[in-house]
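note to self: the first set is below, dont mix up w the second
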Amino acid sequence: MSDQEEYASLADNISQVDVLEGQGHGMTHKCTDNDGQSWYETCTRWDDGRAFAFKVDTKAADYPYPICTLTGEWSLIPAPNHTQIAMTFNITAKSGLLNRLLLTIMVALFINVCDRLLNNWVVLMENNVAPSPPQANSELLPRII
């Protein structure tokens, strides 16, 4: 989960991730979506093998989304006979009714992206191979919100 550049092969909304500087806490990387829009993220937590968190630079002049703040965290939670994968995002829309409406739509679509990402991570971790692209009728693994 902590391989930033591998993330692009697992998240179907991201075409490329480039680590720009550092490793672990403080690392910065650039994410590019499938439309060529990009943004920068900084690692705010690094617990090797267990969790990492990031903050998106939403203040950049070229940041493409109607988001004021965006942070996220991925973690592995040991449980009897298995490990749970947790993804948490905190998102605040830029001011204005239109931005809040756009963010609501984006979040609804992003839930499906997250489901597919979780499924891809499970396939990768269980089989040690990257999953093939998801099919429109593929079943997703259950998720806990």
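second set (the one i keep forgetting abt)
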Amino acid sequence: MTWRSALPALVTLALIILFAAGLKRGDPGEITSPFLGKPAPALDMADLFAPETRISGTELSGSAYVLNVWGTWCRECYREHETLLQIARQNTVPLIGLNWRDDRARALAYLQQYGDPFARVGSDPNGRNAIDWGVYGAPETFLIDADGVVLHKHIGPITWSIWERDFLSRLQPQPARTAASTAAR
């Protein structure tokens, strides 16, 4: 057998090995955020209801919050809206809306018609804040802790089971350390 006749078989074998290795790496559709475990990007956006007023990350610091990127043009955002309303009724953590690349009048009408789950809603018509947060599409939802660190990012619509598994579980208070457990370290 010559190299020329063996080459296609070797290339095919190499591709199979690479494909198999890629399958072992987890969910191929999962896109992680480079901000996980790091300080949240700055927020500076006009309030959707009062455009002369700004919403900034500094005013949100000191308590955990959830940032939800949405738009009226986003079909999946309609799908998750009832879940966002349920989350808001639980009053566990404030939901901050980032209305992305949308018409202000349409966004206001949407919230009036379907309900407003947000403690604050910012307008990002040119997408500047979304770019800073590394947003790929809507909906995307981020969990930020009281120290301003991004704990989790979810791409796609939030369901109640996703909320409980990926968000609420990260918000649960950690057990208090006793002097004895701290001294044992």
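remember for set 2: The longest strand covers residues 65-70.
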